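Q: Got a minute? One more chain.
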Amino acid sequence: MKRGFLIGLTVLMVAGFLLATSAFSADINLAKKSHVEQIIARGELRVGFESGYVPFEMTDKKGNFIGFDMDFGRRLAKSMGVKFVPVNTAWDGIIPSLMTNKFDIIMGGMTITQERNLKVNFADPYIVVGQTILLNKKLKDRVLSYKDLNNPKYIVTSRMGTTGEQAIKKYIPKATYKGFESEAEAGLEVINGKADALVYDLPFCGFLYGSQGKGTTIVLSDPFTFEPLAWAINKGDPDFLNYLNNFLRQAKGDGFYDQLYKKWITGSSWKKELE
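A: Always. Here it is, folded:
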């Protein structure tokens, strides 16, 4: 009886050892497959984005990519000891391009949505924005909030394929919607008097008002949606996700995040780099 017990105990110990060894090997293999290892081996961090989303990713007058996300991307590359490689990509193809390994990460002002989350994994949000309204000034006494635009007589614009477009369809579905290829085109339609309102993120509405819309538009600056922005990576890479979240936590703790926020979000000196 005692001998049988000892044999059984030995078998359990061996089985446990083999199981632990197998799990350890699986962890090692997973780590080797992580994009972190690939990035370091390649010596480059390829960052996907679409230039034009003010003030997150823009092209200055010298042809350089600048903005909140671009500075974050350069800092991330530096933390990994590799070269920063920006990959300007059309927005409607940005997630497929990530999934086919055209770049390593999307750092492009992407809002976390459930639909996108089915295709990619998001790091922790680095900023929260929301949809606001750039309004034709002639309507300032009639339209006091987004709810007042829920009428077919009002022409409302946004960029196609964005959360601005989604917000219009969800919150003001009765408005007459006109979609555009870029947020700049959608905004100019309002500035030129061809539409009544633009629905888009607060940073862009504020920028467009300040640069081209004074005298013809006003901004209803209270966001009516909650939209956390985050960096996106391919699914199945917990090591990369862990690295990004710890990197962001460090950036917020050591003052780098506040430095970027003051420069790009609350500051305006960068605007002369575009003129």
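A: The chain has two domains: 35-128+228-273, 133-225.
Q: Perfect, thanks.
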